[in-house]
Design brief:
7% of the residues lie in helices and 55% in strands. The two termini are 36 Å apart. With 935 residues, it is mainly beta. The protein has a 22-stranded antiparallel β-barrel. A 5-stranded mixed β-sheet has the order 9-14-15-12-13.
């Protein structure tokens, strides 16, 4: 808590100091507009550099550029970009306090497409620069630029990455690549491992990063020796903004209306008056002197402990206001003796309230005779959720010269979620009303110090990074209670006798802290730089990662203090009356009962040592072969307990992982790729920990499995890419993956899908095809309207099969797709941008085919998440160079989110004959964002 408050104060102070120096010195400017001679269109991402210095910039989305804080004098200014002839303008005079205007018209030069080298502070967040980076990539990759992000209106990284081919988002935050669940994907922030905020899964929560902090997102889908090997779907690299394009202070304020919640009655967990700040003020924490084990205290101390806990069972009731969002973005470029120093600082705050009416059901095995699956339970939830997000970015970059750049990047983000659930329904023949209050504080800090260096006429390249990341997940006072329907419209509170049942009357507390220290370096050496046709090079590097996690929890329930003297009238009263001070005693009321176990806590560590070598073998700009191997030694340790005593996991595994990527340039605009590589997938801490947790939302238990094996994957890829222009791409790719011992979360046999654990699937194979297109309609017809339209399409088809052989098939769900694997994924968008009127309209569509959310057994059928079509509309109007307004219309179709079982196994998933386990509508959302550029 103190760490968070200290960081908050420090970050706000740094931001204030940064903004205070954003003053205009006695220097001049150079600015202008850049257009394409052949089309008349403005050019985005073109490099502008004052020769002999490191002062540079790139053109923005409207083709404009500005070189700020240029000292008075006469300069030579160069303009360069892929596929255009470089232009150098001599004798450019700069006068203090004035702006020198240079408008440039660029001419095509296709012969330079494969050889261009851009110097200066190159903009990396445009579509043009992103496509150039993807084309030069030595692996099969896709990506999203900040320019596309701005068009889409996406609010966070979770919404951003689902625009990438083959990617879907689960639970609005976890990433699936090529249909593979989040555990099969690796996430890095600025080239270092991103920390996890979840106790149950290996995943980075993408909803934590506001979209305006992202420069670009790259997704590598084929193995290469120079990227981490722990993946099967892909490696996602999120790059935050670095050297700014100009001096700027921008303020954005947004508000939105949610169909299901805004201006309606809202119930909020009793979390204290300062919850809106997003920080845990300690209102719901266990008291400082609370006993560590209630089973070892006297009756008087037990009574005192019960009195020390807040009577906060009744939610606060109010009206849900409009969602709020505030972004403050500041950037500054410093010219220090012709050396470039840049800073970007951004603060983002938002809050929103949602209210979903959720149906939940659970069923026995389907009876083919009666054609019925008998219900175990049927509930209807009113789910009220209040989210508060705070994000801070503070990045510095220093460009010593064209050969040496240093960066110091800092990201802090936190997401606080409070939720109150009212659940009414029946289990078997008994009707219940159950209630839960939960508050969850999650946050990450990620910092990196890095450098990029070029030596020996750029024949030697060296980069390095040292990183530290910290994440926390604090769940104070997850309280739950149950009431029983008397059949006459009244309910009795359920209070156990003898031993507590915390899932029905109790409180749960948990804390998770994770620290990651990372170091990496890469060296690339040209072996024959003067050769005309064959220019081989070798790239070697090392990677070190030290991850430490601690997880602790308390499971505390309530029982009748004395079964003979208990006051039965308390059962008919309210929950607030039951927990009145006088009713927590040792005779007629209720008392605490410790239900925590030694296996509810664990400490774990993971140390990874990796080294690699890649040989890059290009021949006459036509053929490039990249082949190498990566060696990874991973030591995973976990210390906990189970019912039999201590549990000590110590997995020390070394693997050699070869890979090869072949690229053939068919022409200056098209190329062909082939790739093969071995990767792996290690169990996560939670998956091998014996800890068992009751999930109130899903109404089931989850436990770990200490005997999990590391999965092994063979990856085969092929891809064809065609670049009609510098901002357009058409590609088609195919892939085949063979898994051994794939890790999945599966139902425990005999539990009726009410208990789950983690297991290895014996054999898995995935085969798929992906299509991506980014195409401008400019020049196709004489229509001015069509000239302003750009189309985006990416689609994937994947066939997946899991099989178990012989005795391994007993009790298993067999011959099915892999958990989380969608058979198809479609993302499309139509972007309309009229530069003259400064008006943009963007229409976006997304759908993913049905996928297994929870693996069943040979008797209880798999639970599938059904397809859901999503259409978003974004309209933007720039009134001046300083003021713009954006309107968002999200989830216009508002289709049901549905989980189902195909009980009769006819493959049709018909809601009238099959079993629906979860269903709700999230509601449409309409928002307005006003953006003002102060300078």
């Amino acid at each position: 808590m103190e760490l968070l408050n200290s960081f908050k104060r420090a970050a706000l102070t740094v931001f204030a100091l940064t903004v205070s120096v954003l003053s205009y010195a006695q220097t001049g400017k150079i600015s202008g507009k850049i257009t394409d001679k052949s089309t008349g269109q403005t050019l985005v991402g073109l490099s502008v550099l004052i020769e002999g210095t490191s002062i540079g910039t790139t053109s923005d989305a409207d083709g404009n550029y500005t070189l700020n804080t240029v000292k008075a004098g006469t300069y030579k200014v160069s303009f360069s970009f892929i596929s255009f002839k470089k232009q150098v303008i001599p004798n450019v005079k700069v006068t203090p306090g004035k702006t020198t205007i240079i408008d440039i018209v660029m001419e095509d030069d296709q012969s330079t497409l494969n050889d261009v080298v851009i110097t200066g502070a190159r903009k990396t967040g445009t579509e043009v620069s992103l496509l150039a980076e993807l084309k030069k990539s030595q692996s099969i990759a896709n990506g999203v630029s900040s320019q596309t992000i701005q068009r889409s209106g996406d609010s966070d990284a979770a919404q951003v990455v689902k625009r990438v081919p083959g990617i879907t988002i689960v639970d609005n935050r976890f990433i699936n690549i090529r249909g593979l669940a989040e555990r099969y994907n690796n996430v890095q922030l600025n080239n270092v491992t991103a920390p996890s905020l979840e106790t149950d899964v290996r995943s980075f929560s993408f909803d934590l990063i506001p979209s305006n902090q992202i420069d670009r997102v790259l997704v590598y889908k084929s193995p290469s020796a120079d990227i981490p090997a722990d993946f099967a779907g892909g490696v996602v690299k999120v790059f935050l903004k670095s050297i700014p394009d100009d001096d700027r202070l921008t303020i954005d304020y947004g508000t939105s209306y949610r169909q299901n919640a805004t201006f309606k009655d809202f119930k909020r967990t009793n979390t204290g008056s300062l919850y809106f700040t997003g920080f845990n003020t300690g209102d719901n924490d266990l008291p400082v002197n609370f006993p560590s084990n209630l089973n070892n205290v006297s009756a008087s101390k037990l009574n005192a402990a019960g009195h020390a806990l807040r009577n906060n069972w009744v939610p606060d009731e109010n009206t849900a206001n409009l969602d709020q969002k505030l972004n403050i973005y500041g950037s500054k470029r410093f010219n220090i003796n012709n050396k470039l120093l840049g800073n970007i600082t951004a603060i983002t705050y938002s809050n929103n309230k949602t209210n979903n009416a959720v149906f939940r059901g659970n069923y026995e095995a389907y009876d083919p005779v009666s054609k019925i699956a008998e219900e175990n339970y049927r509930y209807n939830d009113d789910q009220y959720t209040y989210n508060v997000r705070l994000g801070i970015v503070h990045n510095w970059a220093f460009k010593l010269d064209n050969n040496n750049t240093f960066e110091f990047k800092n990201l802090y983000n936190q997401l606080s979620t409070s939720q109150y659930v009212s659940r009414v329904g029946a289990e078997k023949q008994q009707a219940y009303a159950n209630y839960a209050s939960n508050v969850l504080y999650r946050g990450i800090y990620s910092g990196q110090l890095s450098g990029n260096h070029k030596f020996n006429s750029e024949n030697t390249k060296f980069d390095w990074v040292a990183g530290y990341s910290k994440s926390f997940r604090d769940q104070p006072d997850y309280s739950r209670y149950r009431t029983l329907d008397n059949g006459d419209g009244t309910y009795n509170i359920f209070v156990p006798t003898g031993g507590a049942q915390p899932e029905f009357l109790g409180r749960f507390y948990s804390k998770m802290n994770e620290d990651i220290k990372t170091g990496a370096f890469n060296v690339e050496q040209a072996l024959a730089p003067k050769s005309e046709g064959f220019k081989p090079s070798v790239k070697v590097g090392g990677y070190y990662e030290d991850k430490q996690r601690s997880f602790s929890s308390r499971n505390i329930g309530y029982v009748r203090a004395n079964s003979l003297q208990f006051d039965q009238s308390l059962l008919k009263g309210s929950i607030e009356e039951l927990f009145d001070w006088k009713n927590i005693n040792t005779t007629t009321g209720i008392r605490l009962d410790e239900k925590s176990n030694p296996y509810d806590n664990y400490d774990a560590s993971n140390k990874l040592f990796a080294g690699y070598a890649n040989f890059i073998l290009p021949y006459k700009d036509k053929l490039t072969i990249v082949a190498g191997a990566r060696v990874e030694n991973n030591v995973q340790k976990l210390n906990s307990f189970d019912t039999g005593g201590p549990v000590n996991v110590d997995n020390d595994i070394t693997r050699v992982l070869p890979s090869a990527n072949v690229q053939y340039n068919i022409s200056e605009k098209s190329l062909f790729r082939l790739a093969y590589g071995k990767t792996l997938n290690r169990p996560e801490f939670r998956e091998i920990a014996p800890f068992s947790f009751y999930d109130f939302d899903q109404n089931f238990n989850v436990a770990g499995n200490r005997n999990l094996k590391t999965a092994k994957i063979d990856n085969y890829d092929v891809k064809y890419e065609f670049y009609p222009s510098t901002s357009e791409l058409i590609s088609i790719s195919g892939f085949y993956k063979k898994f051994k011992d794939a890790i999945e979360m599966t139902a425990v046999s005999g539990s009726n899908a009410q208990s789950f654990t983690f297991n290895n699937a014996q054999n898995v194979r995935n085969i798929g095809v992906e299509l991506e297109m980014r195409k401008s309609l400019a020049g196709i017809t004489s229509s001015k309207f069509l000239n302003d339209i750009t189309l985006l399409l990416n689609a994937s088809y994947i066939n997946s099969k899991v099989t178990f052989d012989g005795s391994n098939a007993f009790g298993q769900s067999n011959n099915r797709p892999m958990q989380g694997q969608s058979p198809y994924i479609i993302n499309t968008a139509i972007f309309y941008n009229n530069i003259k009127s400064k008006f943009q309209v963007n229409l976006l569509y997304n759908v993913a085919g049905k996928r297994i959310a929870f693996v069943g057994t040979d008797v209880i059928r798999d639970i599938y998440e059904m397809p859901r079509n999503v259409i978003d509309l974004v309209v933007t109007k720039n009134f001046t160079n300083k003021l713009s307004l954006k309107a968002n219309f999200n989830d216009l179709l508002n289709q049901n989110f549905t989980l189902m079982q195909d009980g009769n196994q006819d493959g049709k998933f018909d809601q009238s004959t099959d079993q629906v386990t979860v269903q709700y509508k999230s509601g449409r959302q309409f928002g307005l964002t006003l953006s003002y550029k102060v300078f």
